[in-house]
Amino acid sequence: MARHASPVQSLLVDDRFDGDVYAREPLSRHTTYRIGGPARFFVRANSVGALTGLIEVCEAEGTPWVVLGRGSNVLVSDEGFSGVAIALGRDFRTLRYDEGRFTVGAGATLSSVVQEAFKRMVGGFEFAVGTPGTVGGALRMNAGTRDEWIGERVISVTTFRPGRGLARRHGGDIEWGYRTSSFAPDEVIVECELAAGVADPYQVRDKMEGNLARRKACQPLSEPTCGSVFKNPEGASAGQLIEQAGCKGAEVGGARISELHGNFIVNRGGATAADVRALMALVRERVLEATGIELTPEVRLVGFEDGDRG
Q1: What three-state secondary structure class fits 53?
Q2: Which residues pair with 167 in a beta bridge?
Q3: 233: which of 26, 51, 239, 251 lies 20 to 30 Å off by Cα?
Q4: Cβ contacts of 286 within 8 Å, gap of 6 or more
Q5: At what angle do helices 201-218 and 110-120 cross, to 10 degrees?
Q6: Under 8 Å CB-to-CB from 104, ≥6 apart: which residues?
Q7: What does pTM read for this prediction?
């Protein structure tokens, strides 16, 4: 290690650090969009100690950091991210079921919870079938529909904040809204307990299969996207507004508005973050002109001056 190595660099090369470290790692390899320049460091933290120690050192040094999860609902800039991009590894992927509740690590996929619920034929997660990403990301954005969302299932959440440490909160102490929650920007979800409902197993199966069939029919699940790009305005559908404004099929570079769903931007191959942002700006302008409604982005921006933690 060089004589003038930073505290972050010193930590990451320490043999005792419980994680996998990659310098100048392209974040296009770690986002569902397959878009994004390199991070200064990409780190897969495998334990709570590794995660909390890394974040505390970053905070003390003034190094920006961001937790990516599985990289859905994220657009990373073409220039990349100047700090540490963190994924939750081994110890954060636990999934246990006992007496009507799941105990789940924040790095576990939401689909794994849905699959386990289907296997055990318990209800409460039918709305999430086909939803990508991790449980931690799903909680932060309160994933779900207008009628059902994951916040309704939360019994407790354990989080970490630099300078404050670990804390466990009751689900009722958290504010849940449409595509929002009251977690602080620097608050990292570590684990949660989710309530499973008693349900007729045939109804669970039918609802899950029906929801998945509808998603496949109207969303480009097989193509690289970030999921929904814009939040639905109050009393309206962002996808319908985009379609009404004549934007379906619109393209900028390698990015295109999906023909299946107006609120999905697809990476057709070789799309850049600049292409996606230009297409987002075009859509917002056209929808505003056509309807007077200004769409609000749902996708998180990483590595942009006006983005989230970067």
Answers
A1: helix
A2: 159
A3: 251
A4: 245, 246, 247
A5: 140
A6: 94, 95, 96, 113, 135, 191, 192, 193, 194
A7: 0.91
Say what the pLDDT of residue 310 is.
31
Q: Taking the CA of residue 280 as centre, how many other CA atoms within 13 Å lie in the half-sphere pointing to its CB?
A: 21
Average pLDDT over residues 227-255: 95
Joined together, the tokens standing for residue 167 give 């804390």
DSSP assignment of 106-153 = TTSBHHHHHHHHHHHT-BS-GGGTT--SBHHHHHHTT-B-SS-BGGGG
Task: Please give the Cα distance from 283 to 244 (Å, whole number).
Answer: 11
Between CA 305 and CA 4 the distance in angstroms is 28
Q: How far apart are CA 264 and CA 128, in angstroms?
A: 18
Query: Where does residue 96 fall: left (phi above 0), alpha (psi -120 to 50 degrees), or beta otherwise?
Result: beta
Alpha-carbon gap, residue 118 to 260, rounded angstroms: 27
Write down the residue that tokens 């409604």 correspond to: 293
Q: How far apart are CA 16 and CA 39, in angstroms?
A: 22
The residues annotated as belonging to the active site are 179, 228, 298
Q: Is 227 left (phi over 0), alpha (psi -120 to 50) or beta?
A: left
Q: What are the tokens at 42?
A: 């990409």
pLDDT tens-place string over residues 6-45: 888 888 888 899 999 999 999 999 999 999 999 999 999 9
Strands 165-170 and 154-161: antiparallel
The size of the chain, in residues, is 310
C-alpha–C-alpha distance, residues 1 and 38, integer Å: 22
Say if CB 197 and CB 122 are below 8 A apart: yes
Summarize pLDDT for 95-148 with one digit per residue, the tens.
999 989 999 999 999 999 998 998 888 988 988 888 888 999 999 999 988 788
Q: What is the DSSP letter of 3?
A: T
Contact 27, 71 (CB under 8 A): yes
d(CA 102, CA 192): 8
Tokens of 214: 């509808």
